[in-house]
Write a structure and sequence with these properties.
Helix content: 40-55%
CATH class of the largest domain: Alpha Beta
CATH architecture of the largest domain: 3-Layer(aba) Sandwich
Number of helices: 19
Structural class: alpha/beta
Number of strands: 16
């Protein structure tokens, strides 16, 4: 089977921040997990480079939009390997193949009769690149997201007949109650449809930094239609010489933030229907990372630099914190204090210490060779969790999946205290019991390490190497799939105290 997961594409009007890292890490966990299960996976991320926000940022910086896009796109591209992200392709919407494919798809929408010319008047937020309806306007005609005054726009544009897709979208939502998740976001999107859909502007006449409209060279496409199509266009040219569209489309999961729900849950499937393309299978909408109650945002200036965090603590620590401390799908506060607490209490003291002392005891009591002993069956229920973890990841419930694994990490730590191998080692008559405890601890550590591999790829690889059992495929996550008799290597502290 194939599995296709995407992040939103990120505006290049400024450098990346922790919010971008959050979504990208989540998508990476899903991609890595599905690869472990033997699926054919394609994972896409990239940058959104056209439109007014980028043009305005470039003007403020005294450079051309292309120069700004080149500079900041590279920053986003460089961030992925720092976060241990395993994306298969990085799309830029200034890529010529993307531009050409956008023109092809939207020409089809035009040819199918879903486009007409008209006069647009309305309130517009240049930072959202979004025309606001009455229910989306804050006090004193401000943007509720950015808090800036909205601008009254008046221009002749080409319009997309979104209103024609009222019934098809209602049918889609009725037929697929898991199309948008979590459920609160499904309800929000459905409520927007139920208000009655209005036609929307497809093009802009006052901009030049965008994809040219093939049937009207005086206009460019409204940036959101250009951007949304990246999920589809990338498949046509990501693999040189091979079109991946038939293999991976429709996308399995689009991961998005809640501020772009309307575009992805309403405009996007309607546009695809207009082009006679199947909509994606799922949209999963996560919340905001908050600092002092406010969304983390470049435009608000309250960002945490993920590169600094990784430089100090490593990528695994950041990956763990973001999906452990903030329930995926909800808003959540982030702070350096909470990060340091998770790092020390869970990564260093629970998982890191479990790995270190388990391996050390086998070296101390059995000369570094895992005993060929039976496993302790009392741990079966705590370690046979792979199927449950898979079911949670299938729903993009990444925090609950990690919590399931972490409960077993804690159970294995309690097992060490309950069995007290250091006491068994003092009594020669307890040699067989000690063999069982050590074998069970090593096997439990191995199972949990395989399950954690999607979340903590670097640390888990070190542990599996030290165990001399490097398999990370999902079949290896079964309690009992490992072998006794292996010789253990050394393991330096996984998460040193800072």
């Amino acid at each position: 089977m194939s599995y296709y997961v995407t992040t939103p594409i990120y505006y290049v009007n400024a450098a990346p921040h922790l919010g971008h890292a959050y979504t990208t890490i989540a998508a990476d966990v899903m991609a890595r997990h599905m690869r472990q299960r033997g699926e054919e996976v394609f994972f896409l991320t990239g940058t959104d480079e056209h439109g007014e926000p980028v043009a305005q940022a470039a003007e403020r910086a005294g450079v051309s939009p292309r120069e700004l896009a080149d500079r900041n796109a590279q920053r986003f591209k460089d961030l992925a390997p720092l976060l241990e992200v395993s994306n298969d392709f990085f799309i830029r919407t200034s890529d010529l193949p993307h531009v050409q494919r956008v023109q092809d798809v939207l020409q089809t929408v035009y040819d199918n009769g879903h486009v007409y010319k008209g006069l647009y008047e309305g309130w517009y937020c240049p930072r959202c690149a979004d025309f606001k309806s009455g229910t989306e306007i804050g006090p004193d005609n401000t943007c509720p997201i950015h808090g800036i005054p909205l601008e009254w726009e008046h221009e002749e544009n080409w319009f997309f007949r979104l209103s024609e897709f009222q019934k098809p979208l209602e049918d889609l939502f009725d037929r697929r109650p898991d199309f948008v998740a979590p459920r609160a976001r499904y309800n929000e999107a459905r409520a927007f449809i139920d208000q009655g859909l209005q036609d929307v502007s497809l093009t802009r006449a006052k901009l030049t930094w965008g994809v040219p409209v093939p049937w009207d060279d005086s206009q460019v496409f409204y940036v959101w239609f250009d951007a949304l199509l990246n999920y589809y266009t990338a498949l046509s040219y990501a693999d040189s010489g091979r079109d991946l569209t038939d293999t991976f489309w429709p996308a399995t999961y689009h991961l998005i933030g809640k501020d772009i729900l309307k575009f992805h849950s309403i405009y996007w499937p309607a546009l695809l229907m207009a082009a006679e393309i199947e909509p994606p299978q799922h949209l999963y909408v996560h919340g905001f990372l908050l600092q002092e109650g406010q969304k983390m945002s470049k435009s608000l200036g309250n960002v945490i630099d993920p590169i600094q965090v990784v430089d100090t603590y490593g990528a695994d620590a950041l990956r763990h914190y973001l999906l452990r401390d903030v329930t995926f799908g909800q808003d959540g506060s982030v702070s350096t204090t909470a990060f340091e607490s998770r790092y020390e209490s869970e990564l260093a003291n629970e998982y890191g210490n479990l790995a270190s002392r388990t391996i050390a005891m086998v070296h101390r009591y059995r000369d570094g060779v895992v005993p060929r002993a039976d496993l302790d069956p009392s741990l079966n229920g705590d370690l046979e969790i792979a199927q449950h973890v898979s079911a949670l990841v299938d729903k993009a419930d990444l925090t609950a999946a990690l919590e399931t694994i972490w409960q077993s990490v804690r159970r294995l730590n309690r097992y060490v205290e309950e069995q007290a191998p250091w006491q068994l080692a003092r009594d020669d008559s307890q040699s067989a019991a000690l063999d069982t405890v050590l074998r069970s601890l090593i096997e439990g550590l191995r199972v949990l390490t395989v399950l954690l591999h999607a979340y903590l790829p670097a640390a888990t690889e070190r542990v599996l190497t030290a165990l001399d059992q490097p398999r990370t495929d999902y079949a290896a996550a079964a309690y009992g799939a490992g072998e006794g008799g292996s010789g253990l290597g050394a393991l330096e502290p996984l998460f040193p105290k800072r």
